[in-house]
Amino acid sequence: MKLMEGGSAPGEEGAPRGAAEEVLLSGLFGLAPALKPNYALSLTRGAELLMRRQDAAVAVVASSSAPVSALSLADCIGCYAFQRHDGPEPSAAYFTVFCYPFKKSWWDSGASRHRVAKTFCVLASAEAEENRRVAETWARTIRELALPPSPKLAGATNGLLPRPCRVMVLLNPQSGSGRALPLFRSQVQPMLTEANIAFDLFVTEKPTHAWDLVREEDMSRWDALVAMAGDGLLYEMINGIMERPDWRSVTQKPLCILPGGSGNALAASLNHYAGKGNFVKEDLLINCTYFLCKGLHEPMDLVSLRTASGRRLFSCLSFGWGFVSDVDIASERYRKLGSARFTVGTFQLLTTLQVYKGRLSYLPADEQSPASDSSFPTGTQNCPSAEHHQHHQGSFDNGTLPVRILLPPVPPSPREGGDLEDSLLVPFEQPVPKHWTVVPEEEFVSIVCIYQSHLGADLILAPNAKLCDDAIHLFYLTAGVSRMAMVKIFMAMERGTHLTLNNPYLHYVPVKAFRLEPLEPKGFMTVDGEVLACQPVQGQIHRRLTRIISGPSEGLGPLRKEC
Ligand SMILES: Nc1ncnc2c1ncn2[C@@H]1O[C@H](COP(=O)(O)OP(=O)(O)OP(=O)(O)O)[C@@H](O)[C@H]1O
């Protein structure tokens, strides 16, 4: 084996041209189950593991004319070395590399990630210790080369999970079609083991369980907080964090979503930002688990929402009223259909298209805000929803009203660093500031404030949205839009091209804050897909309030641009 010395570290900028081909390690190994060397391996600075089959044990790797196959370590989630004292050759050592490259399926035109694991046998020496040392050198170098590009670069806001690390996993066994737990066991858990990520699994037993767990648990035990569920569980976790006295530090602990729900909008958005096409179902789950295994995290904006009834909620995805929210709620009964529930719900509600009367105002994203001295003050009355205990869960359109589950109030605790002020909002008793825009129409079919690209796994409502673009993407459909036009809009939304239809009833404006005052209590509102009673609501964006595990983006250089 030959270890090249000198040069810059893997992932470091400024490497000379041609440095990618530079061979860092090379050697002859047996591809398990073979013990005898039958493969020549070389590991390049450009993070490729080149493998050339040898007909016989040839000493000089480069002289072979056999075809070379390559594993890109960008797809690698882990590598470890080991010895088997009960194996056929006690002095042999091994290293196994785990990769998840994209591969086309014969039944599908798109490519998705598939597992490739290769184990190589090191038998260069008669000494077990020497073979172990070689296997460990290879495993360590492969792991280093597999790291996403270094977050040390200037202006970077990205971070990496430490290794080894431990994460908290909250899993909702009821989310989606109810398969989150078996999917975690069969798909996610093996990948976490391969990536050397330990976890503590909490299976939620009821609504608000995740909220309460995240608010109460000692967070120093974990390096990241993972939701294996739909978007609703992550929403609960975020609100649990924001109720903690130490919320300022805990919001810097990366969150992660592993899609187990039916909408999976945040997971689909993260996948979209990474530039890898539109995945659904298990392909999306494997890609998001791959993101977690790679460990890259970056800042994410949150929206602070305030209701006229005095609640304060934090939202990572969307707030809505009207058609889109009603589809979300009404299609609950078709939960077993997975994401198809939204298509069924859309066609069902189109037959009885409703109009919602309300006053909508907003602060455009490009408007400079004059200093306000009447913004929402800090203080315990503004603690993130001490009233979340009035949790609404329920069905709609089947004659039953949402059930209110009342839990005991939580005593206010002193909050380290105070509360987060909503500097752009004024109390509901006051009119919106003069520099805000008040929408002249007061009859709507649907209003959606979205802060990520996707409304569902295959609905791209805001294709230009980013994790931290400091904007709420406000979409509203005014009354008068025909059913046929709505079908066209929703079909175009599958490709994110609905705005190119130039439908005069469909409006889009990026904003920093909004206020919605229903003129009649009709239907329900939704926050990240969860039900909220219809009432006046206002909200503002908070830039980079939390962090989220995201995908290494393709084609944007070593690091995404600073946001
Ligand atoms: N064990 C449980 N039983 C019933 N409800 C639960 C349980 N655990 C969590 N919940 C509640 O289920 C609701 C929905 O959860 P989640 O978002 O995970 O799934 P989903 O609605 O299927 O997904 P999506 O938001 O993608 O459609 C949340 O309000 C959550 O509080």
UniProtKB/TrEMBL annotation:
Q: Does the keyword Nucleotide-binding apply?
A: yes
Q: Single Gene Ontology BP term? A: negative regulation of apoptotic process
Where the protein is mainly located, per its record?
Answer: membrane
EC number of the protein: 2.7.1.91
Transferase as a keyword?
yes
- Keywords linked to the UniProt accession: ATP-binding, Kinase, Membrane, Nucleotide-binding, Transferase
Q: Region Disordered: start and end of each range?
A: 366-395
Task: Look up the coiled coil feature and give its residue ranges.
Answer: none
Subcellular localization, as worded in the UniProt entry: Endomembrane system
**Gene3D superfamilies given for it?**
2.60.200.40, Probable inorganic polyphosphate/atp-NAD kinase, domain 1 (3.40.50.10330)
Segments of skewed composition (Polar residues): 369-384
Provide GO CC annotations from the record: cytoplasm; endomembrane system; membrane
The name under which this protein is listed is sphingosine kinase
**Annotated organism of origin:** Phrynocephalus forsythii
